[in-house]
Amino acid sequence: EPEVTQTPSHQVTQMGQEVILRCVPISNHLYFYWYRQILGQKVEFLVSFYNNEISEKSEIFDDQFSVERPDGSNFTLKIRSTKLEDSAMYFCGGWVNTEAFFGQGTRLTVV
Amino acid sequence: QKEVEQNSGPLSVPEGAIASLNCTYSDRVSQSFFWYRQYSGKSPELIMSIYSNGDKEDGRFTAQLNKASQYVSLLIRDSQPSDSATYLCAVMAAGNKLTFGGGTRVLVKP
Predict the structure, then answer these.
(1) What is the largest CA-CA distance in chain A?
(2) Which of A24, B16, B44, B54 could staple A5 via S-S, CB 3.0–4.6 A?
């Protein structure tokens, strides 16, 4: 299975702070995405990123969120002014041929 | 609203038996269908993908797709305790966005 690496594995942050979640996606692929899963709920699409631009985003992905590929390899999700309800597992991933793979996730806890 | 529905379970099966999981979806233009396994606190792990009506087998797993009935299923043969997990059905319509079901929790009892 293609490897997607996410850091950190667990992030605890104070409400109102900004967090940056990092992902090293599948090498040489251009199409990546972020999903999240609130504890006990469904995995939800946040945003997809193709060729260094956002290709699609969900209604969850509002102005609080942003994505970047700052150095051509890392892929980041920034959450500004975190809220308690942002606590979730965040998964980064990419498509290989016609199959979608995920990293191990970052557990974000907002206190 | 595009929906993917699964029975939440738990589905309890004895070791060595067949586990049968079902998934229905609402978007008729859905093209690609996936089954993921998710252990508690971990990320989804791809088990199977299926794109055409009929059956697709991979080891102990068989996925079945019926687009007319908007139904996809997963059979796990010779269930092992290590198969105890939540199984997520995911559907892709237009674009590359996956819509996930809520998952079915499977418990395999030795």
Answers:
(1) 39
(2) A24
Cross-strand bridge partners of residue A101: A94
Q: How far apart are the C-alpha atoms of A30 and A43, rounded to whole Å? A: 22
Select from B43, B95, B103 the Cβ nearest to the Cβ of A104: B43
- Measured CA to CA in angstroms, residue A99 lies from A2, B5, B35, B36 at distances of 10, 21, 11, 11
> Are A33 and B102 within 8 A, CB to CB?
no
pLDDT of residue B13: 98
| Residue where the block lists tokens 């792990």 | B45
For the cut 90, the answer to whether the pLDDT of residue B89 exceeds it is yes
pLDDT per residue as tens digits for the range B20-52:
999 999 998 888 999 999 999 999 999 999 999
Q: How far apart are CA B12 and CA A70, in angstroms?
A: 47
Place of tokens 């850091």: A7
